[in-house]
Each structure stands twice: as structure tokens, then as C-alpha cells.
Write a structure and sequence with these properties.
By secondary structure, the chain is mostly helical. The protein is 71% helix and 1% strand. It has 21 helices and 2 strands. It has a two-stranded antiparallel ribbon. Helix 6 crosses helix 21, helix 7 crosses helix 11 and helix 10 runs antiparallel to helix 11. The chain is globular.
């Protein structure tokens, strides 16, 4: 049931085209019901007290938002996106039957890798995936009337997850977890999924994808001096090659310009600065209770258009106190992993970096990634799951 819920989230956009709306929500609720009905270990669930506190604060914010906002539906959706992944994994890990995260992840990684391949197919062959992307999706509406090159530059690839930002972070973090478990995975399945995730992340033209993957590979090998030299040499060669490319190449492959062109990066920051968005959020937010659940969407909100940060989005919508509790959830996971593996703890830091720089974690496709994230809390109490 857990794996089925994950697949339903991954293919939600396709299911919508087929007339099946939000099946993943129903399956997620069924997972919670099954876990509770199967019995929860009281001693383990007590270890998730801060997670439960976070969900209770979300419930309080939901109640206030329903009365304060013009569209209570947005508040309900936002509540589900914030709370469901945490609540589900707390129930899974607290079930009296022990659940192995690795078993779940290993059974889903081939499909996760397939998402990357689909992104590549979409980028190079058909932006609509032959009708699998809903005709009223934001990506298609915004790209209407543009050439494919312009579409590729601004919307790069979305695969079936609905957003290039979501796809890039999904590919980066899933690839990193894949590399983490490499020794325990079958070689053919590891390479199939890893190549798909690598290619899918690359075509998005996301600087964050390259940053996270490179940092992880560099860190995981830093104890071996020769790998440091290899990494430096590889990056130097790639940088020299890209900097020597003719401008026509940039026009044909806009993802290269987006990631490697210093001039392009500086220009983009001037036109669409993340810092300006963060400052706007800080200045326009009541630190006690925020602006209400669901008050930021992909549509413009006064002077703000998307938070571009999961952390700042929580602050804008729910306020500082709830954000502080959520950060407590994050650092409990970090210190939990630190007890058993520096490598795992470092992956949590990379996840936090992703949360800081984009708001993609509110997508349901991060279900398995949230499972890895929440699991660290178990290690804090020296109880392996």
C-alpha cells in the first residue's frame, strides 16, 4: 500500500488526464488507517513528540486560516501537503511491525529513475508527452506561443511531476540516496535508475541539481585524496570546455547557459532575485501567526510570486513559532543520523539546503525522500528501523 501511494503521487498528473483525481490522497489516508489499525508502538511514537506537535500547530493554523482567508480550500490543500508526509511516516515507523526504509526505497527506485528518463523524452521530443500532461497545466499555458527553445529555457523539463524545480530536486535527492545505498543494490537496477535521475536532473538546467550532487560526491569521497584531485580536474575540464563554447551552442542547449554562464546567472539574479523574495517575506509576515495556510501559491500574491524556499514558505504562511518546531524536526533527524553515520547526516544537510533554496518539498512526489528524512529521528533514540 505504501509503494502504491508513492506511485500514485508520481503519476498524479497522468491519472488526472485519465479522469482519476488525486488518488494518492486516498491511498495515503488508507496507509495511515492501516498503520493505526495494525497497532502503534507507544514507546516509539513518543519519540516523535515534536513531529506530532508540529502537526497540531498546523491544525490550529488551519482552523484560523479557514476563517481568515477568502479561499479556505487553499488552506486545506496546504495543510495536507505539509502534514501528510510527516504523519504517514510517523505512523509507518511507529507500527508494531518494523518497517525497513531500504526495502521500500529499493522497490521503488526503478520507477523513480523512469521519471528522469520521461523528463529527457519530454525535453528533446515532445513537451506535452503526447497528451500525458494536462492541457491546462501552468507549464503549457505559460509556454503558449513560444518556440521550443524558449520553452526549454524557461520550463526546461517537468516530466510527470509538473514542475522543473520539483523534477530537479527530486532527481538530485533520489540520486544521492541511490548513491548512498549503492553497495546494497543490484548493479543493473542501480545504474538504470541513477542514469535516468542524472539525465533528468541535467535537462532541467537547475543549478541546485548540479550543486547538491557534486557536493555529495565530493564529500563522500573527501577522505580519499585521489578522488579530490579527480573531482577538481573534472570540474576544471568541464568549466574550460563550457566557457569556450560558441554562443550558438548556448542557444541550442539552453540548460548549459543556465548552469554554467556566469553572465546568464548574474542577469537572472538581477531580474528574479531570491534574496528580494526572502526580504519581502520577512518584511510582510506576522512572525506570530504568519499570513495563513495556503497564502502562497504559484500565482502572484501581492508583491510575491512563489516563495522559492520551503523554509521561508512555512514562515510566511504559519509564522516563526511553527517554523521553529519544524526546524526542531529537521535537526533531530540530523543529530539522529550523526549517531550512526556522518554520510547520512550530511545528506540531511543537503536536504535542508534544498528546502532553503526551493519550495519543491511541498510536492507529494517527495514521499520516499520524506521517509529517509524522518527516519533519522529513530536513530536519535538508538532504535534502528
Amino acid at each position: 500500500m505504501v509503494i502504491l501511494a508513492y506511485y500514485a503521487a508520481l503519476f498524479n498528473s497522468v491519472l488526472i488526464v485519465l479522469g482519476i483525481n488525486y488518488l494518492y490522497v486516498v491511498l495515503n489516508i488508507l496507509v495511515i488507517i492501516c498503520m493505526v489499525a495494525g497497532g502503534l508502538n507507544k514507546r516509539i511514537i513518543q519519540q516523535f513528540s515534536i513531529h506530532i506537535l508540529y502537526i497540531l500547530l498546523l491544525i490550529i493554523s488551519l482552523g484560523a486560516s479557514i476563517f481568515l482567508l477568502d479561499d479556505p480550500g487553499e488552506a486545506i490543500i496546504a495543510f495536507g501537503l505539509y502534514s501528510l508526509p510527516i504523519l504517514i511516516w510517523v505512523c509507518i515507523y511507529s507500527n508494531i511491525r518494523k518497517v525497513s526504509y531500504f526495502d521500500l526505497f529499493s522497490k521503488t527506485m526503478l520507477i523513480s529513475g523512469l521519471v528522469g528518463y520521461i523528463g529527457v523524452i519530454q525535453y528533446f521530443f515532445n513537451p506535452t508527452l503526447w497528451g500525458l500532461i494536462p492541457a491546462n497545466s501552468n507549464a503549457l499555458i505559460w509556454a503558449e506561443g513560444k518556440s521550443f527553445a524558449e520553452y526549454a529555457l524557461f520550463f526546461r523539463a517537468t516530466s510527470i511531476v509538473g514542475s522543473p524545480q520539483v523534477l530537479s530536486l527530486f532527481c538530485a535527492l533520489t540520486l544521492i540516496i541511490n548513491l548512498r545505498y549503492k553497495k546494497h543494490l543490484k548493479p543493473w537496477s542501480f545504474y538504470f535508475s541513477s542514469i535516468g535521475l542524472l539525465l533528468g536532473g541535467m535537462v532541467t538546467g537547475s543549478k541546485l541539481f548540479f550543486l547538491l550532487v557534486f557536493i555529495y560526491i565530493f564529500f563522500s569521497q573527501f577522505q580519499k585524496f585521489k578522488y579530490i584531485l579527480y573531482s577538481i580536474a573534472f570540474v576544471s575540464i568541464i568549466s574550460l570546455f563550457v566557457s569556450s563554447l560558441n554562443l550558438n551552442i548556448y542557444e541550442q542547449i539552453p540548460a548549459i547557459e543556465r548552469v554554467f554562464s556566469i553572465e546568464g546567472i548574474v542577469q537572472q539574479e538581477k531580474e528574479d532575485s531570491r534574496i528580494d523574495r526572502y526580504l519581502y517575506i520577512i518584511n510582510e509576515t506576522n512572525p506570530i501567526y504568519g499570513n495563513g495556510l495556503g497564502s502562497i501559491t504559484n500565482k502572484s500574491v501581492q508583491g510575491l510570486r512563489a516563495a522559492e524556499s520551503y523554509i521561508f514558505k512555512i514562515y510566511y504562511e504559519i509564522g516563526f513559532m511553527t517554523l521553529l518546531v519544524f526546524l526542531g524536526v529537521c535537526f533531530m533527524s540530523f543529530f539522529g543520523y550523526l549517531h550512526v553515520s556522518i554520510n547520512d547526516a550530511f545528506i540531511i544537510l543537503l536536504m535542508l539546503l534544498g528546502m532553503l533554496l526551493v519550495h519543491a518539498h511541498d510536492s507529494p512526489v517527495f514521499f520516499m525522500i520524506w521517509g529517509y528524512f524522518i527516519r533519522g529521528n529513530i536513530y536519535l533514540y538508538k532504535k534502528l528501523v
